[in-house]
Write a structure and sequence with these properties.
Layout (H helix, E strand, L loop, with lengths): L11 H4 E6 L2 E6 L1 H15 L5 H31 L1
Antiparallel strand pairs: 1-2
Helix pairs in contact: 2-3
């Protein structure tokens, strides 16, 4: 069986929220997606991920990287204007 590609955008409708923290509007994972990522990370540590779960974890990890970058840019711009 071949593992199918999981696009990070698959998680946008239900896995991402925008949250106001202090004076910043930031992208965050919903609790559901955060819990799923942790579940996959735990399984990865135990080396029990299926090939589909590995692809899912990579997609969620890519979203995490993207949102970390965007949130850092937003925070830097806010600091520059303060």
């Amino acid at each position: 069986m071949t593992a199918s590609l999981v696009r990070p955008s698959k998680f946008l409708p239900e896995g991402i929220c925008i949250q106001r923290i202090n004076n910043l509007t930031l992208f965050k994972f919903t609790d559901k997606l955060g819990e799923r990522m942790q579940e996959l990370l735990d399984k990865n540590k135990l080396d029990t991920l299926t090939s589909d779960e590995k692809i899912e974890l990579e997609a969620i990890g890519e979203l995490d990287d993207i949102f970390s970058y965007i949130n850092a840019v937003i925070a830097a711009q806010d600091n520059a204007h303060s």
